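Quick board copy: two proteins, each given as sequence then tokens.
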Amino acid sequence: MRQIFSGLSPTVWVLMLAQCFIACTGPLIVFTGGFVGISIAPTPELATLPITAMVIGIAMFTLPFVRFVRRFGRKKGFIVAMAFGIANCFIAMQSIGTGQFWLLCLSCLLFGFPLAATLQFRFAAMESVAPEQAGKAVSTLLIAGLVAAFLGPELGLSGRYLLDAEFAGSYVLLAICLTAALIILLIYREHQTEQNEEVSKGRTLTEIARQPLFLLALTGGVCAYAVMSFIMTATPISMHVHFHHSLEQTKWVIQSHIVAMYLPSLFSGILIRKLGAVKLLISGIILMVICLIIGAWQQDFLHFWWALVLLGAGWNFMFVAATTLLPQSYEASEKLKVQGFNDFCIFSAQAIVSLSAGWVIQVAGWHTLLLLNIPLLALVVVSLFRASATLAPSMRN
């Protein structure tokens, strides 16, 4: 264990601790959004729209937050984003209490601002350590998701009857968590390079995007999130409504999935050093293919559980590998531009699949939804073949 976490800067630990509280936002909205949506949405097909609105919000606020960071620095950006998130919790609570579906969707959209801010956590963590420690820093930061895996759904369940309106109290509990994150971020210290590095124009995004390595990192991250989100968003409704599994079983599958997303972070940093980012990426693709097979094979509780666990682990391997590859494609002066564009693409794709998940699961069913993920994984394989000739030996091995 000491080998796994040795050599990391205090910045990584501060960001990870704050992330423990912030990261529960997504699981809470995923767990409660569909159920609240079913009860107050105009039509069942719109039930997952609050979840989609959150993802759209992340995509929408990613580039504006990067511009804010360029001007005011990451620390101020993080603090402003957390304060905004706390206030927004009470908008969500009010929307559920009054049964206003579109106000709930707006609130979930606005949660995209604090969540977009946390996308900078992994880059801030990588920049606070030596280059060879970058993969370990990203993996360590993702461990916060283990806390969120349990805390997010538990906030949803614990707050279900806290107020008169079902699940409204869950967002009061979320406000407490975001307050804790804000307090932790007050002691965060920006790395010297974050404060002093001169930002020049550098190459255009078009020039950077011509690099096969950049395209591999981009498609790896985009498709990892898209496949994971498409299946995860549809799972609560598919399990509880279509296949009649209990709410407790549904909660356990979602919690197990989120644990599987972040538990591999205990060793994925080491795997990158031993196997290389590319082999880790390939391992993630294989796990996701197995997930699709199990999910299509049978729809009992254990098949859902295994499929979602493998989906989470596959996402982790693909995302850590893609994040580690990305900095190899840009210069220091181009980092904010490329990081912002990368995250914008990731969450735009996630927004599209989240928006379509509710419609696909209602109209076409679970099996069709699973089949639609195959072209996304194939796209990563094609990008891998294109980039293979340009990859350094250290990335391949």
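And the next:
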Amino acid sequence: MAKNDTKVTDNPKLKEKTLSDGQISLYLEYYLGYSKQYDEEKDKEVVKIIRKKEFLNLYIWQAPRTPLERQQNRETLELAKKIRFEREQELKAGKLGYRLDKKDSINFLDYFQNYIDNYQKKDVRVIMMALAKFKAFLAKKHPIYANFIKPNNLNRDLILEFVEYLQSICTGEGAHTIFQRFKKVVKYAEEHDVIHKNPCNGITCKIDDQVIKKDILSLEEIEMLLNTHYQGQNPDIRRSFIFCLYTGIRFCDVVGLRFSNVDYPNRLLSFEQNKTSGHSKASNVVIPLNDGLISLIGHPSSPDNMDEVIFKLPSHTMCLKALRHWTARAGITKHITWHCARHSFAVNILNNGANIKTVASLLGHSGLKHTEKYTRAVDKLKEDAINSLPELKL
């Protein structure tokens, strides 16, 4: 077994973890020094050993029963030992340190995670998704890089392959959105001299931004949602999604709304859009409030608590789970995400005769380009309505 062949002085050490299926996963454990920390319970300074694990995606049989399984064990162990030796030589040469700044020492996956850990904007969830998709891509297409890939191993061919992978697994604008965030991290790495040349330059993940890729809730389906209640339903999730259906606000904006955003005497809601804040003249949005919307908003717990959040929402993931449960209970079979509320709002008010410029203003669009896709959706609805009539035979 791996542990019997590991010397005390080895760094990293080849170790093993027994899995529930009877196999053993091989991994490397690096000793990266120590740090001193104050332990409040012991009321003294203690030494903490710093270690790092690298799973090799190599497996051996815990109790090989056939000559073939024993041969597979020997070959897998031999490969693991070679990898361990190579990593040790890299560590000794200063190419794979814990806090080293040399370009060749950096694992881009760790660099990406560090970027996320220090990221403060509200689209962090999408950037986390970009890292998860890139890791999944490497594990499937390039397993040699599954746990460690140097920044300069990112080349144009690899990025093109990643884009194709995203387009094969994502629907709607998902691939485009994820790749945009991935490029953001790569550009940051280039600007900080971690990558010599940006491999994403000139590569785009194209979408037809004049076509709505998400499902739309009709007025009848919205009525079905409003009439659906169930035990244990989160009232804030319910109120906030209905509010988005009737205002077109994005999730990243509704989650941050405070009572201070509401002008009760003039019945107005004003807020700065997270997505376009600082780089769009239409970043600030003002929405008129009717009785129903004011009822959804309610009032702060006390007049002095105007900075109180209006909708106390859990994570985006929890909100989506609750939304899907709610739509299923209502008998709606469409794939409804939170952003569908924004699309539904635009299509439904256009279908009821609203002016396209008015819709653009309510949605916070700086021009009509992004709003025009909703007019195409309305035209499609009208066409479907005509085609739903019995066939005319003369």
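Board note added afterward: The CA atoms of residues 32 and 99 lie 9 Å apart.
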